[in-house]
Amino acid sequence: MIKIINLTKIFRTESVQTTALNEVSLEISQGEFVAIMGPSGCGKSTLLKIVTGVLSPTAGNIQIEGKVSALLELGAGFNEEYSGIENIYLNGRMMGYSRKEMDERLNGIVEFADIGDFINQPVKTYSSGMFARLAFAVAINVEPDILIVDEALSVGDIFFQNKCFKKFDELKRNGVTILFVSHDIGSVRQMCSRVLWLDHGTVRAFGEAAHICDMYMDEKR
Ligand code: ADP
Ligand code: MG
Q1: Which of 12, 14, 18 to mutate to test the pocket of ligand 1 (most atoms within 8 A of CB)?
Q2: Which of 31, 104, 135, 143 is the most buried (most CB within 10 A)?
Q3: What pTM value is reported for the model?
Q4: Residue of 136, 144, 146 whose CA lies nearest to 78
Q5: C-alpha dihedral (150, 56, 141, 104), degrees to nearest 10
Q6: DSSP H or E run through 34
Q7: For residues 73 and 151, what is the distance between their CA atoms, to the nearest angstrom?
């Protein structure tokens, strides 16, 4: 369960002030599959980072029940000098798993990532697609209650995307809550129960997936 009440995030630099989120309120139940849509800069990543705990809100309140696993913008939570394997352990530690617990999960993660011997090479030598494979493999193999996926999947190849969508189905059947950013209207229609449409940091609409996709496409025409 995710309950967000009047969430506001203001970024301040020396010269500019940006209101990335402005009094956003919504509630997502356990087991829902929600897509977040909206043009660049509307606040999608900021919202996901606050839900994940990477950023704290300027005002408002957020309540979360369950363990969150996240695949944010590329790079977050990884050390690029470390090998893929070392990064798997690093991520595990950050999520509160012991070395032994990660030993048990290692094979599953390596298999899902399927990047061959690159798994032993420093992450800085990876293509963005390889990196996405590794990061996604880690995020889904730590038994999250809530899985958060930013646009990361869009850098992957079509085969990996399909594999991820299959995995989403399995997670959904197991009652995992999924919150993901996508510009792929087709897969959003097919997979999601509800869509959150953000517009300049405010909730433009939050409702049944097909309905919100229609509204969104009509507006953009
Ligand atoms: P989206 O993911 O929907 O493209 P973001 O949540 O990344 O949008 O950004 C929302 C707004 O907040 C944008 O105007 C962006 O420039 C601004 N922003 C995001 N992160 C920062 C930051 N660290 N410092 C200053 N402004 C930021
Ligand atoms: Mg973003």
Answers
A1: 18
A2: 135
A3: 0.91
A4: 136
A5: 150
A6: strand 33-37
A7: 7
